[in-house]
Amino acid sequence: xxxxxxxxxxxxxxxxxxxxxxxxxxxxxxxxxxxxxxxxxxxxxxxxxxxxxxxxxxxxxxxxxxxxxxxxxxxxxxxxxxxxxxxxxxxxxxxxxxxxxxxxxxxxxxxxxxxxxxxxxxxxxxxxxxxxxxxxxxxxxxxxxxxxxxxxxxxxxxxxxxxxxxxxxxxxxxxxxxxxxxxxxxxxxxxxxxxxxxxxxxxxxxxxxxxxxxxxxxxxxxxxxxxxxxxxxxxxxxxxxxxxxxxxxxxxxxxxxxxxxxxxxxxxxxxxxxxxxxxxxxxxxxxxxxxxxxxxxxxxxxxxxxxxxxxxxxxxxxxxxxxx
Length: 324
Hints:
5-stranded antiparallel beta sheet; globular
């Protein structure tokens, strides 16, 4: 296969002459990319910082053979703060978006099908409940996590969990446990059956480190990205000290994403514009990508190809990366 440049897009031309584009310009800066479970469809929010109102879009792409192909773009009158797909591979999957006005919208294709009004002022993150096609969690600036039944269009009674700082990251671990991370550096593993901490609170330099991202490596280890140059991994079977520390970024870590059961690989993005892939078993750097020219904000693994991942950033670019 021959590498070539077509316009501003990096491409690969195969033996049949078909051009595969590995880079695509987005409608604006982006902080998140989410694959539909078990599919190669990506949802990406963008924001227009230059407008008087913090408006944006939700863009959908099909990755397919490794070349991102636009499906459609939906404009939003408010900023999109989070995205998540509800449901699993065997159930109806809907796209859920959160917004800076506290609203949560549910989408079927290009059409909004329902809207929920959160009391969280600004919803900062979303997560789907594993095994459920109807329940999603939201974390917000009012220092809480709340569960929502998107079919019923309302909050799940008694589900709100309060924190010491605004909730900026959440990650589910099966149907009964949830990780939450806050602006003041606290990470809590919750037992949702009783809405009580399932383990001792993990505090990471409280007051100094703001949690940006959480991701489970396996059933007992999770990775943390925060206002630190390092990616930290904690073991829920041990104490509150990091079990592993991954170095490589020169500025704050903006997101982390483990490959889960597929491999021990752990990807991260940083304010240093880099995307770094680590071997979680050894903490060694496996690959380093520096295509972004502004802070890289989010990374996701391609469900159809274990050596491929995508990233987005404040430079309004979508990049597809392949591990050699």
